[in-house]
Design brief:
Layout: H1 2-51
């Protein structure tokens, strides 16, 4: 009975750990994507201003 309890506890811990890792990974990827999008947008605007008259559209 003790072995079954330990195995069940280990399975629950493993499942929760995997779910948390997936959630954190998603949050990190979204944050990095937002940062990269902002930097790319800023670079496009700076390039347009540097070369003058070019319009940047999304």
């Amino acid at each position: 009975m003790l072995l079954l309890t330990v195995l069940l506890f280990a399975a629950v811990v493993a499942a929760v750990t995997l779910q948390l890792r997936a959630g954190v990974k998603g949050q990190i990827l979204r944050r990095e994507a937002e940062t990269l999008a902002a930097v790319a947008s800023m670079q496009l605007e700076n390039s347009a201003a540097e070369y003058g008259g070019l319009e940047v559209t999304e």
